[in-house]
Design goal:
mainly alpha; globular; membrane; Transport permease protein; antibiotic resistance; transport
Amino acid sequence: MNTSLSRGHVELLQFFRDKTALVFTFAFPAMLLLLFGTIFGDQYNDAGVSASRVFTASMIAYGVLNTAFVTMGAGLAMDREDGTLKRLRGTPMPVSAYLVGKALLVLALSLAETALLLLVGVLVFDMPLPDASHWLTFTWIFLLSVIACSLLGVAVSALVRNARNAGAILNVPVVALQFISGVFIQPMSQLPDWLVNVASIFPVRWMAQGFRYVFLPESASSQELAGSWELGKVALVLGVWCVVGLVLCLMTFRWSDSDR
């Protein structure tokens, strides 16, 4: 455990020294929230909830995906290409300690990103915060989301052959999923049925729906596809993706490019 914590501390120091990554990791989701919330903020859905409030809740899913999936995937690709992983392989540090260190980085960044988005929602768009029971639900949705996205980031990093292109490659599925998963477009009933079916396979749709349950009033459930929050299905899908992500990690993880 001490080795994992030490590695996590190193990962945090390295990340915060990279000003470009720091700015884009945190600023981009918040900037999009400001744009969408300002442009559509005076619009209300049939449940009487403002668009800015819906975007704030939904964008937390984007913030977690962007932070966990992209940061984990790009970080691993870079460490593999510059030889960091290969050097660590020759040390007493087990692979589990390295991955836990990365996970601690992702968890810290995801918490910070979520806090920033909520700060924008509360201060700029006057979004009220939920009661204690909803925060308990937020906790398990957030943790399952971070775990699933982080594991998938580890798995997908094996497909990145050039670390310099990692960000661009990893952001393709991220951006696509936002548009079909109810983050940028609400309600999802506006989308073609086949796109809804595709989105329902992946975790982002369920992440966004779960976070909307936490931060929106009960009346807003009428805007969801099933007319309810489906928290049981949210837990099931995110849990399955955690297992799938773990299996893919075990199948694809490698220490260096020569291990292909």
